[in-house]
């Protein structure tokens, strides 16, 4: 009954939004947990600029950054039900509802950011996009989120043995919980916005994320040890409520898709610049950044793959990812 209610709400919203005269402006709401100026926020803003230009002002986008509309778990439900039209979120929270998203979230599945780009821009990315539609979402784009590494307030981590007993915040995803456990540490899933105070008060010892998040969320102030284990290179996903997308004319659907595709190049450019800037800023603030014995981390991931890649569809996807050179 709830599923039907959500579908009905989405359809009613779409009807309200899109049965307007061609000259009227429709303002779409988009959510992001990150602060204004962050590369994902700016990527969606750029999408909105292109959309406004290419539809002669009929559509525009208001980006609600800094978790103004809630944390990712909340906004995923908002966009699925049609309360908001657009959302930029991490792919990991979808692991329970879109099984194909498990593969990009696997530790060390990608060998580099360039490898991730080739995979997500190709047939594997298309297959993952298609898997979102049955849950009421259309994927417009995959955005960069760089590589994620562990950081903490206690000590440098150079080997797997150094992880023992430390408590880390992770994304609310079983893969991330199991990955952390496989390394001998304790995982504490919690919303992104609670991480700073939790490290500061000792509820957790650290977290794992990319340099721009480590910098802009000010985690560098409370966790000075950043270790370059680079366990995941997890793309972000920019989604639209399917009922709203389906209510567009075929011509406007193409405009939306092309504007999103064009925003990817812009977002990647912004991401690369921000990563360099944030790493430099972290070092300036006294962060100790160290390399790790990465092969040990990679070897520890076998039980994670054994548990999460039992489905033949996912096994084939893993093979397809690894075949991309």
Automatic annotation (TrEMBL):
Pfam families: DctP (PF03480). Residues 1-24 form the signal peptide. One of its GO terms (cellular component) is outer membrane-bounded periplasmic space. Gene3D superfamilies: Bacterial extracellular solute-binding protein, family 7. InterPro entries: DctP_fam (IPR018389), TRAP_DctP (IPR004682), TRAP_DctP_sf (IPR038404). The keyword Signal applies. One of its GO terms (biological process) is transmembrane transport. It comes from the Bacteria. GO terms for molecular function: carbohydrate binding. Keywords: Signal. PANTHER family: DICARBOXYLATE-BINDING PERIPLASMIC PROTEIN, PTHR33376. This is TRAP transporter substrate-binding protein. It comes from Oryzicola mucosus.
